[in-house]
Design goal:
- 2 copies of one chain form a homodimer.
- Helix content of chain A is 67%, strand content 9%.
- By secondary structure, chain A is mainly α.
- In chain A, strand 2 and strand 3 form a beta hairpin.
- In chain A, helix 1 crosses helix 4.
- Chain A is elongated, with a radius of gyration of 21 Å.
- Chains A and B meet through helix 1, helix 4, helix 5, helix 6 and helix 8 of A and helix 1, helix 4, helix 5, helix 6 and helix 8 of B.
- The structure holds a DNA duplex.
DNA sequence: TTACTCATGTAAGTAGTTACATGATTCC
DNA sequence: GGAATCATGTAACTACTTACATGAGTAA
């Protein structure tokens, strides 16, 4: 259910087309909630119909057109409601951990390979997220700048701080995954000898 | 796609009915991969049809019957293939982190409440998982005992070690979530003053 | 006979995945 | 004229959720 809220959150920074939204999902809010293009367009339609968004057709070149979406008052209210509402947690489901619990059935080399990839994956994520935090702190993120632009200056610090905070959670997660994978590699070494 | 593998993994310990499987999902493998009863029964049917499982109708009392499922050679092969295959990762999607990134739109008291609940949730999980590890180490888990029973003794330690390892990952995760939430509570305190 | 456990399902809906499909615009 | 970008969709499928539904067995 978070896709609608991610969309609302992005559009409060600036009205944009579905195409632009797709790009932003790949490069900003998508670090926390990815969505394929094929899911975004239909969702924009239903949110428009529900009154959370309004849209306006604008010319594009000579013959073509584009539809620009903006958040309505109802959409803003829904965003405020969502941020203040109690969290709902997805069911506990972790395919990687599940598999690890049954590594005795695997080829040890294959298990080792998986754990190396796991650590590598989160090392890459760690870097990406660290860069992201630096960019947010330095206000180098275009969408964030636009967001701050129509916010009173005394709220800027809190706005930035919460974005940083979210990514700190991702970083903490990444670190714990890397440590876990390394512990697993050590276990495999021990079992080999 | 892990549900089928979770089912195979449980059934290699001991053949059982759908009903029993549902119980085991709530109390053992379900810590890593939960599934509702309404999903398990249909999945058993399709896995039976695919030849990963075989089933046998057994009498239960005077008139009633029950269907007991067991893993076929094809099922065991599929399990081995899965454990050795490269990991496939779900898309990055974290509704809690997404919301935290937009806490500037929330009521501060509500955000505080959410972070307290987040920490509490993972503190409870931490306890459960810690107990689980203790039970596994002491071989107090009935299903694990059955699994070890038809395994040569020299493989017992590795089998137990991998289960412990999986839960250590969950514990590491829980710790990092608790620390993150506490960091958030501190941030909110700072913003209030 | 009542309550609880054992046992097995279905149905309708939501969310997300993978793949396909089309056409105008802009820049070289 | 061709390639990359801008722009918008649809279709089929899989996984999961929530809710409903039924009946026999067992123990007090």
């Amino acid at each position: 259910m978070s896709l609608r809220h991610a969309i609302l959150a992005v559009l409060t920074a600036e009205p944009m087309t579905g195409y632009d939204l797709v790009q932003h999902f790949d490069e900003s809010v998508g670090f926390l909630w990815t969505a394929p293009q094929s899911q975004i367009y239909p969702t924009l339609h239903t949110m428009d119909a529900e009154g959370l968004l309004r849209s306006e057709v604008q010319p594009r070149g000579a013959r073509a057109k584009k539809r620009v979406y903006d958040v309505t008052a109802a959409g803003r209210a829904e965003l405020a409601r969502w941020t203040s509402e109690r969290n709902s947690y997805p069911a506990d489901r972790d395919g990687i951990r599940l598999k690890a619990a049954f590594y005795e059935l695997a080829d040890l080399d294959a298990a080792e390979q998986q754990l190396r990839e796991h650590a590598d994956r989160y090392r890459r994520r760690l870097e990406q997220w660290q860069e992201r935090i630096d960019a947010i702190r330095a206000r180098r993120v275009p969408l964030l700048r636009k967001r701050l632009h129509h916010l009173s200056p005394d709220r800027h610090d809190a706005t930035v701080a919460f974005k940083v905070f979210a990514f700190e959670g991702q970083i903490a997660r990444a670190r714990s995954e890397i440590e876990w994978a390394e512990r697993g590699l050590e276990l495999i070494r021990r079992l080999r000898s």
